[in-house]
Amino acid sequence: RHLLRGVGSAVNERLGAVGDVRVAVDDDVQMLLIELASVLFITGIRFPAIITEGISMVGDMTFPLSMLIIGGLLSDINLLSLITDVKLFLFSVLKLAVVPLVVLALFVVCGGNPSLTVALVCVTMCAAPTASNTAVVAEVYGGNAPLAAKLVGITTLYSLVTMPLMLILAERLL
Predict the structure, then answer these.
(1) What is the full per-residue pLDDT of the chain (174 aa) written as tens digits?
(2) 165: which of 4, 29, 39, 78 is 20 to 30 A away, CA to CA?
(3) At what angle do helices 116-127 and 99-110 cross, to 10 degrees?
(4) CB atoms within 10 A of CB 166
(5) Cα–Cα distance measured from residue 94 to residue 88, given in angstroms and rounded to the nearest whole number
(6) What sign does the CA torsion over 111, 117, 120, 121 have?
(7) Are the C-beta atoms of residues 163 and 101 closer than 8 Å to each other?
(8) Under 8 Å between Cβ of 128 and 163
C-alpha cells in the first residue's frame, strides 16, 4: 500500500499537484478500490451480472475512444510531415527494429533452449507499435499529445512491415 502511495505521490509531485485536496482524496479512493479488488479476487466473490456487464461495456469503450482521440490529434497534422520527419523515423527504427533484434540476439546468444512460443512472444512485444493510450495519457497530463499521436500513427504504419519480418526472422533463428 505504501509503495503504491509513494509512486502515486511522486507522479503527482512531478505534475505539480502535491497538496491538492482532490489528489489526496483520489489517492485514498484508489487505495480503497485496490484493496476491495484484492479482497474480491482472493475470496472469489462475484458481482451480479448487471454490474459486471455495465463495467464490461465501459471497458469495451476505451479502445474506440482512444482511437477517436488519436484521430482528432492527427487531423491537425500534415500527413506528409508524418512520413518525412527524420526523428519519428529514427524512433520508429529503434522501437520496431533495433529493440526486437537485440531481444532476439539475446535469445540466440544466451541459448538455454527457450520455448519458441516464449521467444516469439518476447520479440512480438518488443516489435509492437507504440501503445494507443500514449496519446491519451499525454493529452490528459499536458504532455505533447500531437507528438504522441504521431508516434502511435507512424509506428503502427511501419509495424505492418516490421512485425512480420521480425517474426519470420525469429522463427528461422530459433
Answers:
(1) 444 444 445 555 555 544 444 445 566 788 888 898 899 889 998 889 999 899 899 989 888 888 888 888 888 888 888 889 999 999 999 999 999 999 999 988 887 677 888 889 999 999 999 888 888 888 888 889 889 989 998 999 999 999 999 999 998 988
(2) 78
(3) 160
(4) 24
(5) 10
(6) negative
(7) no
(8) yes
For helices 49-74 and 145-173, give the axis angle rounded to 10 degrees: 100
Beta carbons within 8 Å of 90's beta carbon, 6+ residues apart: none
Q: What's CA 141's distance to the chain center, in Å?
A: 15
Alpha-carbon gap, residue 122 to 110, rounded angstroms: 14
Could you give the CA distance from residue 147 to residue 86 in angstroms, rounded to a whole number?
13
pTM: 0.68
Question: What is the spatial distance between Cα 111 and Cα 47, in angstroms, rounded to a whole number?
Answer: 46
**26 CB burial (10 A radius; 0-12, 13-18, 19+):** middle
CA–CA separation, 93 and 84 (whole Å) = 14
Q: Which three cell numbers stand for residue 161?
A: 512491415
Q: What is the DSSP letter of 129?
A: P
